[in-house]
Amino acid sequence: MAGALVSCGGTENTASEDGKSGSTSESASAAESSKAPAASGDVKITKAGVEDHQVWGDGAYVVHYEITNTGADAANYFAEIRLVDKDGDHLGQTGVTADRLGPGKFSTGDIGVLEAEIQNGKLSDIVAAKVGTVDRTKPE
Question: Which of 40, 64, 108, 112 could form a disulfide with 60 if both were Cys (CB 3.0 to 4.6 A apart)?
Answer without folding.
Answer: 112
